[in-house]
Amino acid sequence: MKHISILALHDATINSIDSSYQMLSRVNDFLRYQGKQAFYTVEIVGLENSVKLGRGLYRVTVDKTIHHVAKTDVAIIPLLCGDFAKALQSNEGYADWLIRQYNMGAELVTLCVGSFFLASTGLLNGRSCAVHWAAKNEFESLFPQVSLIEDRIITDEAGIYTCAGGYSYLNLLLYVIEKHLGREISILASKMFEIDIDRKSQNPFRIFMGQKRHEDKEILSAQDFIERNPTELLNIEEICTMVSLGRRTFERRFKKCTGNSVAAYIQRVKVEFAKKQLESTTDTINEIVYNVGYDNIDAFRKVFKKYTDLTPLDYRRRYYTAPY
User: Can you give the residue ranges of the HTH araC/xylS-type domain (predicted)?
Assistant: First the structure.
């Protein structure tokens, strides 16, 4: 038996709390159908008896306050919404309890951007963490001591689980169920809740947004130029001349500000442009590849797959919608 504490964090999303409660409770039903004992005791716990969620849109009545939970086996940290800085401040009261539970052996299951709260406790320092691609830049600026994993959906390290964006937390819950009860029960939960199992990467969903939270005017100008010219064959020396910087200085500052080399940034802008064309036009893949400045189809296919985990053809099959 494992005791599950789903934290009713202030400004958490109601769906992440309820989904966790429903899935883990339903697993108990699956076990009973097989003539086995229930495995989970699932409770929603909070700082107060009643907690506002989702920017005040909802209110949940908890089963217990954290002061009445001396020990738990698994603490689930739900998604947060709204202003992260405000959410972290309003949930400070959970930190000591969560650290104490982890030090007593509890597993910590962090759903998507709930990782902002977990990171604020220091428990992720020096450890890996997955986070939604759209929250990457903000997370890195707030918690530089955390090792951010960009490609995988799930991380599992020292009893701490994290997951990347949105509803991928359902995959994390399946993953945890498998660790506790085995593959058979996880597959059964996948089928009953109709969740694709073993989804490992968020790359097919990622939208490239260049890091622009810096004040280097020359680099911002270069980024803007690259993004406005996705179909051009760009020359790095010409960009250096345009922003009046030597190549070594330019490349060093560009990498520091954006986290990408100039060449990688150009590639990612071209891939993003190609994705839009694959989603919305009937142009052939060869035409799209030539339009973004590549004359070698195989070379572009490798670049495209590097950033999306899909070939251009697979991407079109997944996302193209024919006009009515």
Answer: 220-318
